[in-house]
Amino acid sequence: MKKYKTDWYFYYLVNVSLVIIISFPIYWAFVSSIKPPNELITSTPTLLPINPTFENYEKIWNLEPTSSRGTLKSAFTNSAIVSIGTVILSSIVSTLAAYSITILRTPFRNIFFLLIIMPILIPGISLLIPTYKLVRDLGLMNSYLGLILMHSTGMLTLGVFLMRNAFISIPTSLREVALLEGASELRIIFTVMLPLAIPGLLTLMVFALYASWNDFILAFLFVNSTDMEMLNVFLMKLTFSGSQFDTFWGLLNSGAIISFIPIILVYIFLQQYFLRGVPGSSVKD
Fold it and tell me: What does the pLDDT read at residue 281?
């Protein structure tokens, strides 16, 4: 009994320590965002602000555009549009692809699945040059559609893998009964199979939102218009908009905290489904 309690104490000690280590950068960014300049730039930093203020949030939200960067409002809206579009498109394509491979038992389905999974072995950075030429030739530079298509394509491998694990645990007898009752294949997907695969679908949506919202490389390379500027690119440009010795640390930390909020809220509300939808062992009837 004592050994059991000791193991649990050690388990909680390790986990609490990891939570503190992981959360401290976010905490420090938030504290820095509500500190006035005289507390932020000092040789003796404090863990708590002495005179907290939310002036930095008001300033960055109402920041005027310049010739080299846009505004936080515009960048936030652009990132939201691209992220929502990526979540919708990647969910639809991944669900239909996984359904056809897992449930319909199409010919050579295992080969198709391997071909879809294999790109995970290729570093994405090595495809930037051909991708850039393709997007440019298709006229998708500086467009929402171009970024949505690229993010959704990048999510296809993980999306099909997640949805295949979700569908493979659903008894095929449910589909057979629905077919006997005259239901179409599309109706079976949305009324029978998909409701049972909600944890996997929501996990896919969380991953798609995270990947598109936090993207920097694609947003930086394929968008060169301030009107189409994404959130992370805006923060990068804000970092270098001051002089060599005058970085706007308060504004930068405020913008970083604002960029955290959507992802944190989504994860909090979908946490239970996210944990259930992570691929694991499954039993097929």
Answer: 37
Q: Are residues 113 and 7 in the same domain?
A: no
Q: CA of 247: how far to CAs of 76, 176, 185, in Å? A: 21, 63, 57
Q: What is the 3 state secondary structure string of the chain?
A: CHHHHHHHHHHHHHHHHHHHHHHHHHHHHHHHHCCCHHHHCCCCCCCCCCCCCCHHHHHHHCCCCCCCCCCHHHHHHHHHHHHHHHHHHHHHHHHHHHHHHHCCCCCCHHHHHHHHHHHHHCCHHHHHHHHHHHHHHCCCCCCHHHHHHHHHHHHHHHHHHHHHHHHHCCCCHHHHHHHHCCCCHHHHHHHHHHHHCHHHHHHHHHHHHHHHHCCCHHHHHHCCCHHHCCHHHHHHHHHCCCCCCCCCHHHHHHHHHHHHHHHHHHHHHHHHHHHHHCCCCCCCC
pLDDT recorded at residue 279: 46
Chain-centroid distance, C-alpha 272: 17
Q: Are residues 226 and 91 in the same domain?
A: yes
Are both 71 and 201 inside the same structural domain? Answer: yes
Spacing of C-alpha 280 from chain mean position:
21
Residues 104 and 235 in one domain: yes
pLDDT digits (tens, 9 = 90+) for 101-118: 888 877 887 888 888 888
**Total length of the chain:** 285
Question: Is residue 285 in some structural domain?
Answer: no
**In the block, residue with structure tokens 């690229």:** 150
pLDDT tens-digit series, residues 9-52:
788 888 889 989 988 998 999 999 998 888 888 778 888 888 88
